[in-house]
Amino acid sequence: MKLRIALTLAMAVAAFAPGLGQAQDDVRTVQVHFAAGASGTTIKDRVKGYDMVLYKLGANAGQTMQISMTTDNTSSYFNVYGPGQGPGDEALAVSENIGAMVPDINRFDGVLPTSGEYTISVYLYRNAARRAETANFTLNIGIDGKSEGMVQNDFADGLAGGPDFFEVRTTGAGTLNLRSDASSGAGIIVKLSRGTVVRNLGCKNAEGRRWCNVATLADPGYQGWASGDFLIEGSDPALGGVATQLPEQAPVESVDALVPGTNFNATGPIDCIRGDSPQTTCTFGVVRRGNGSADLSITWPDGTTRLIFFENGTAESYDFSQADGEQQMTSMLQGGTFNITIGKEQYFIPEAAIFGG
Predict the structure, then answer these.
(1) Which residues contact 98 (CB under 8 A, 6 or more apart)?
(2) pTM for this entry
(3) Residue 283, exposed/middle/buried by CB under 10 A (0-12, 13-18, 19+)?
(4) What is the pLDDT of residue 249?
(5) Measuring CA to CA, which residue among 55, 39, 69, 68 is closest to residue 144?
(6) Cα–Cα distance between 55 and 116 in angstroms, integer?
(7) Which CATH number fits domain 23-144: 1.10.10.10, 3.30.365.10, 3.90.226.10, 2.60.120.380?
(8) Which residues does 97 contact at the CB level (< 8 Å), separation at least 6?
(9) pLDDT tens digit string along 221-238?
(10) Other CB atoms closer than 10 Å to residue 10's CB: what's the count?
(11) What are the φ and ψ backbone dihedral angles of 355, each rounded to 5 degrees?
């Protein structure tokens, strides 16, 4: 009798905890960034079997996050985890359980309790995963409203636990853009070289990423917003820290302006190929974030689109907007042109589109 009760209890626990105890074949992490000035994005993707996709994005306490998922498999759901949490931890919301933040199945609408990086995990329910089923889904993510005031603590960082000083950590000889606002579309004040130490005046999340308000320490000094992706903890120069301002730095005279009537820094035609069809011409629009980082939107002649994300001069990921299977992406820079292949699609993108000039 005791054995039967124990087995019944174990089965009940398993039924109500689909994310626990399963061994994922593949856990893929995707960093979500919004385009400059945007408050949301749409992602099309797929999961199969025990695979899981983790979408990570920054948001502030007091903001409202809204998530909706449409899927061709009714056994696919998503969980939302707060900062520092993930699969295996208690979820902020489970999209299969209607409640305070889940007004309907596969919908989330809630005011965020803390500032930091949130995680959205998409998965198949255990029975469907066991049968190696596939779910093709569309995820709409939006963040609205102003954040609450900066968190006050022992650090200058508005996100709890940050250091008083940051050090710029870019790739190679790359520089970090110090911008006039917390947006990849804001004007550039100055370019900070690798190794520069800056004072941290507080951080916040915007466009799905972490931005920090920082000030240089040398005279003349500059203050602005920099992407937290390229900042690590730094040391107080008064206590033996590294140099705070490098001599080659100078104010930026020209801003990477937008093409009139658009939100892009550059637009134009590129060569593209799909499957066995002849080479054709697509159009692109690019939002540059500096240091070879950019969001490149491509439109095919039939109106379908593809979004490719560049980080430090490398094509890192894409938006799966036309994924009809598990497509691999490859990228090679040859003679000033990126040759990028995504499944049966091929793109030829000028290097100048990403770096400017």
Answers:
(1) 104, 105
(2) 0.55
(3) middle
(4) 43
(5) 39
(6) 14
(7) 2.60.120.380
(8) none
(9) 788 898 888 888 887 776
(10) 11
(11) -100, -15
